[in-house]
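Hey, I'm writing a tutorial for new members on how sequence and structure tokens pair up, and I'd like a real worked example in the thread rather than a made-up one. If someone can provide the structure for the chain below, I'll link this post from the tutorial.
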Amino acid sequence: MEVPREFLDNYTSALSQIADQSKASLGRALAAIDYTADPATVRAQTVAAMQQACGAASEMSARTAAAFYDGMRSYITDGTFAAVARSERIPAATEQAVRAFLKKLFEGDPDEFERLCMERIDYEVRRAAGECVKYNVGRDRYGDTRYARVPTGTETCAFCLMLASRGPVYHTPETAGMYDHYHAHCDCRIVPFWGTFEIGPSRRAGATSIEGYDPDALYEQYLDRVNRDPAFRDAMARAADRAHERHGRTGSNGERGGKNRGDGTDWRVQQYAERMYAATTLDELNAIMREARQALSATDGMTQLRWDRLWDAFTAKLSQIYENS
């Protein structure tokens, strides 16, 4: 069964419209803030404006993603399923990101501050959509679900090409780059597939396909970029070496694979990942990674799952910094 391209394009268009409307609303709210007030007042008002904008955007995104999930599922089965709109938004993560953005404002760079705030809207819209799909896969349990990163725009960055060219190989939305590789103006979608099968090393295809989504063609584009750009080739090689190292690594407490132990540590990992997303320089990114490794290792151990989560966030942000340099 082939999913019409129009179906995915409409989903992308709806999410983009949510982001654009939310940015316009946020822009008006930020313009109303008196930035000559004391820093504590400015911080409180900015956080409130961002919470309002991001909260509303995330809820609209989740409703859109729930409808998308029901539509995707209808292409592979005659059964019905009522997806639930769950954004799984973390307000504390939004606040932490905004506090990091405010450093730019207080350092005298209001344009960069506003750019980061608007970029955060993009991120939260896409994160809410991905989380909603993930939540409903957990409820649905229809067969073995895999995920693919599907480009929907006219231009796709090299790192997205690499992720997308593997097809529906990813076991979770996170490994398809749901959290960690949503750069500004990224229009890739994390799409669930059912009934997938291997077509080569680390590559899969699905019984259901999407019109116009050709992992083989994307892989050729990715190889072309690697061949034309030595710096990018070297960066990808270093990332691959580090990935091989981490897969053989055992956490300091002897735990492999990791589990969500419900002790708050995984929330701390998410906090560090959010801070990496907000980083704007390589030095800042490296400092956050060092802090995370030291802090988590000093508490109850750096498990494999937590290390993988941190490293995914680090490499994805590293690729974005590289793309913008």
